[in-house]
Amino acid sequence: MTDRDKYISPLSTRYASDEMQHIFSQNFKFRTWRRLWIALARAEKQLGLGITDEQIAEMEAHKDDINYDVAEEREKLVRHDVMSHVYAYGVQCPKAEPIIHLGATSCYVGDNTDIIILREASKVILKKAAQVMRNLSAFAEEYKALPCLAYTHLQPAQLTTVGKRATLWMYELAQDIENLEFRLKNLRLLGSKGTTGTQASFMELFGGDEEKVKKAEQLIAKEMGFESSVPVSGQTYSRKVDYFFLSALSGFAQSAYKFANDLRILQSFEEMEEPFGKNQIGSSAMPYKRNPMRSERICSLARYITVDALNPALTSEVQWFERTLDDSANKRIAVAEAFLALDAVLEIYINVTSGLVVYEKVIEKRVMEKLPFMATENIMMESVKRGGDRQQLHEIIRVYSHEAAAKVKLEGGRNDLIDRIAADERIPLSKEEIENELDPKKYTGRCAGQVDEFLSSVIAPILARYDGEEITSELKV
After folding, report:
1. Which of 48, 164, 182, 290 has the most beta carbons within 10 angstroms of its beta carbon?
2. Residue 126 in contact with residue 466, Cβ under 8 Å?
3. Distance from C-alpha of 229 to C-alpha of 188, rounded to nearest angstrom
4. SS in 3 state form for the chain?
């Protein structure tokens, strides 16, 4: 049977980056297991157990060259993945074989590795989210003063600017970044807790010396890059940790979905467009089509992530007492795929935001079609200043507004509201004075100033934390 006869995840072949796939690879997992065994042996030696430098050096020499064939053959016999890899490591390290995994249970390598994977995968997410912010920041700055229609209830409302709208997308993402940073800051290693979290095996090894048991755990955490381990546990780390992280990933997915959905609508309005390749085909039947394929893919994958975040929530609820194993198969799929899918979403998000197309003339045309309606309040207020009756003016303009709207909607005519108002002698303004109110920039409020303030006060500090090489994204397909 060839690979073409087997199921292969599209997250591997079509979507997720090599960088993120490596973090969830067998090599990353089992090499981390070996580093944890080395850290354990080094801590135990430092605290007085009969472990030699020669044994640790032997383990170090083989920390990366996993003998998978030996481990896999052994697992067929013993049906236990950790003990199979303990055996395989021992085959390569005969002098260290007696002390590998000394005092530990399976979750020492399994769960600590999962925590390390959460940390490393989250760093990739944050790095790529920051690049999206970098792209959108430049976009918002460029278009901070370009008036466009705003929408409430998906109906034209008072104007905003193209750049100000981009800050809405960015603020969603900024909150996600801060949330995941918080999760990372508070992430702790499981440590060396033993089979039920009591550290009884280590108490036995160290002759009942609690200080040495605690010190060993501190040494392991430090070597693996953590400030501390969890204060208490059963055999595993709390599965709420997986829930916290996947909930954070769901937040990113929601933000990306909103951006992509907005862009899909704007592309339908022909105001903005995602990048479209020179040789890209939009439709097999309609050669003229320029479908928002990338934004649609963001939405599709984001929806999967949002639903996937339920998995660790349901798993956390049913962890009986000190441990049960119905978490394992679920979490190894749910956690990995959430990160891989979000990595794909961010890759596309980077790609789209690096080449957003703005059709300024279309935006201007659509603004000017609706601006007469939006200008009516200014016209009414100026007329009152000149002695008009506010209530009477409101009724006059209301009637004309509906008549003009009916002409546009029912007859396909142009919006002649300004002509109707200017022709009414009860309106104490000339047509020229009325038309002076049709400057879109009069209706964008503090948009440009808000963009400047937001970029400097909210976005700049985030980007400063991820100041490095710019990330570009060329989609696989």
Report:
1. 164
2. yes
3. 5
4. CCHHHCCCCHHHHHHCCHHHHHHCCHHHHHHHHHHHHHHHHHHHHHCCCCCCHHHHHHHHHCCCCCCHHHHHHHHHHHCCHHHHHHHHHHHHCCCCHHHCCCCCCHHHHHHHHHHHHHHHHHHHHHHHHHHHHHHHHHHHHHCCCCEEEEEECCEEEEEEEHHHHHHHHHHHHHHHHHHHHHHHHCCCECCCCCCCCCCHHHHHHCCCCHHHHHHHHHHHHHHCCCCCECCCCCCCCCCHHHHHHHHHHHHHHHHHHHHHHHHHHHHHHCCEECCCCCCCCCCCCCCCCCCCHHHHHHHHHHHHHHHHCHHHHHHHHCCCCCCCCCCHHHHHHHHHHHHHHHHHHHHHHHHHHCCCEECHHHHHHHHHHHHHHHCHHHHHHHHHHCCCCHHHHHHHHHHHHHHHHHHHHHHCCCCCHHHHHHHCCCCCCCHHHHHCCCCHHHHCCCHHHHHHHHHHHHHHHHHHHCCCCCCCCCCCC
pLDDT of residue 279: 59
> What are 229's strand-pairing partners?
189
Q: Exposed, middle or buried by CB within 10 Å (0-12, 13-18, 19+), for 110? A: buried
Whose tokens are 């862009």? That residue is 263
Alpha carbons 101 and 38: distance in angstroms, whole number:
9
- What confidence tier does 382 reach under pLDDT thresholds 50, 70, 90? confident
Catalytic residues: 153, 283
CB 54 within 8 A of CB 95: yes
Report the DSSP beta bridge partners of residue 151: 156
Among 88, 39, 26, which Cα is nearest to 62's? Answer: 88
Calculate what percentage of the chain has a pLDDT beyond 70.
96
Q: Largest Cα–Cα distance in the chain?
A: 104
Nearest to 339 by CA among 180, 141, 472: 180
Is the CB of residue 196 less than 8 Å from the CB of residue 235?
A: yes
Angle ∠(62,66,71) on CA atoms, nearest 5: 125
With a threshold of 0.85, does the pTM exceed it?
yes
**60 near 115, Cβ under 8 Å?**
no
* Residue 310 to residue 423: CA distance in whole angstroms: 62
Q: What is the distance between the terminal CA atoms of the chain, rounded to a whole angstrom? A: 26
pLDDT in tens, 144-194: 999 999 999 999 999 999 999 999 999 999 999 999 999 999 999 999 999
Q: Tokens at residue 62, please?
A: 């083989």
182 contacts: CB under 8 Å, gap ≥ 6: none
Q: How many whole angstroms separate alpha carbon 441 and alpha carbon 444?
A: 6
What's the confidence (pLDDT) of residue 277? 65
